[in-house]
Amino acid sequence: MHWLFGDQLGPHFTRPSDDGGPARDTPLLMIEARSVFRRRRFHRAKAHLVLSAMRHRAAELGDRVTYVRADTYREGLARAAGDSPVTVHHPTSYAALRLVCSLPRVTVGPARGFLVPLGDFAAWADGRGGERLRQEDFYRWVRRGHELLMDGDEPAGGRWNLDHDNRRPPPRDSAVLDVPRPYRPQEDEIDEEVRRDLDRWEKDGDVSFTGRDGPRLFPATRTEARAALKRFVEHRLSTFGPYEDAVLAADPVLSHSLLSAPLNLGLLDPAECVERAESAWRDGLAPLNSVEGFVRQIAGWREYVWQLYWYFGEQYRDRNALGHTAALPDWWNDLDAGAVRARCLSTVLAQVRDTGWTHHIPRLMVLGGHALQRGWDPAAVTDWFHRNFVDGYDWVMVPNVVGMSQYADGGRMTTKPYTTGGAYLNRMSDLCGPCPYRPGDRTGERACPYTVGYWSFVDRHRARLARNHRTVQSVRQLDRLGDLAEVRRRQRALGDSPP
Ligand code: FAD
Question: What is the pTM of this model?
Answer without folding.
Answer: 0.97
